[in-house]
Design a protein that fits this description.
3-stranded antiparallel beta sheet, alpha+beta, Nuclear Transport Factor 2, Chain: A, two-stranded antiparallel sheet, about 25% helix
Length: about 100
């Protein structure tokens, strides 16, 4: 079964969504802040609705998204600033989207 994700009124396969997420991660490695509105809205909805860990809920809406090197410096991560001021990393581009459906128990 191919997973489909609706993000900003567009349907993406998991492969397409992950590819776009990777593209955006690479796009913002230099400038750091995600400042294009369409890119921001895609990532915001992806992280708030389709996070790779469906049990992880962000405590408040995303206000800003930026990219910075991982602690090892070998990869880059998306970081978010939430409306409540909390900063947290979302993860690597290959894990932007859930890989299986969560059981509703």
């Amino acid at each position: 079964m191919v997973l489909k994700f609706e993000i900003n009124d567009e349907i993406y396969s998991q492969k397409e969504a992950r590819a776009l997420c990777t593209l955006l991660l690479n796009k913002y490695k230099i400038s750091r802040i995600v400042n294009d509105l369409n890119d921001f809205l895609f990532l915001k909805e992806a992280f708030e609705r389709h996070h790779y860990n469906p049990l992880k809920k962000l405590p408040s809406p995303i206000k800003n998204i930026f990219v910075k090197p991982s602690s090892s410096g070998s990869n880059y991560q998306f970081w978010v600033v939430l409306a409540d001021g909390t900063k947290t990393h979302i993860g690597y581009s290959k894990k932007c989207f859930v890989t299986e459906k969560a059981n509703n128990t």
